[in-house]
Amino acid sequence: MSNVGDTSGRDCYGWTVAREIIDDVLLGALHIQSLTRDGFHHDQAIDHVAFQIGTLDALMEGRFDGDTTIGELLQHGSMGLGTVQHLGGELIIDQGMAYVARHDGSVVRVPETMKTPFAVVMAFQAAGTVNIGDVHSGELFSTLAALTGEHDDIVAVRLNGLFHDLVLRSVEEQRPPYVPLSTVVESQHEFTRHRSSGTIVGFRFPDYLAGLEVPGFHLHFLSDEKDFGGHVIALGIESATLEFEASQAMHVELPDGVTLGAPGTADRSAIRAIEGGD
Question: Which CATH number fits domain 1-278: 3.90.1150.10, 3.30.950.10, 3.30.1330.80, 1.25.40.10?
């Protein structure tokens, strides 16, 4: 049985200084540190560490208002994904710039003053690079799993190249009173494109983080022209360069009223129904 050992303490910035998974099987696999907003603001960017705002559980419950700005988020990483205030589209962060793919697949730059209820970034520095091609639609997730290896780390991935048979999605911006995410995605918008050059950014999260994050691969696409993007449901690879980096640590900013909970206890089938994945 998994459980979370809380060795909480607070320093002068008021953040929780340690919270680690202590399951016998997972001991030492991943260090999770939860922080208040003030703690996240003062936390320093660290190589090979994932920085996250909020939790997937909170987003699934309909907590679509954030307390951290995109500008604050970008201080902790140059690549990542998530959403923006009011669930206003699919957030894509690449090379230190933030974009959002709206419900029709169009893309706009995100002002640094915009807030986010859920996002994750890393100061991405590729530890491995692989040239790949001829990956048919539907084989993407299994191909990435084979190339990035089987382990319990968080793995950040970035692909740049030419893709085909793209199936992406996004959702319309919400207004209070908010409904659960499962209700929102019932009317999600899907869009396709036969062929497009661009960049995929995202992460592979281990199964035991279900509820804190999306287990498996969570990927967003942004076209080279910065005019088309969204959450990846399926696509094929004609030719692309895959870069990836593993992380054994995550710092999580928890807005007021949001708790870390017990990672791994969430309903995986409900998560996959909402988010998709491998």
Answer: 3.30.1330.80
Domains of the chain, by residue range, sit at: 1-278
The pLDDT assigned to 263 comes to: 63
Query: Which pTM was predicted?
Result: 0.87
Question: Is a pLDDT exceeding 60 seen at residue 42?
Answer: yes
Its sign, for the CA torsion 62, 176, 219, 272, is positive
Nearest Cα neighbor of 223 from 79, 101, 90, 87 is 101
pLDDT digits 0-9 by tens, 165-204: 999 999 999 999 999 999 999 999 999 999 999 999 999 9
Q: What is the mean pLDDT of residues 108-135?
A: 96
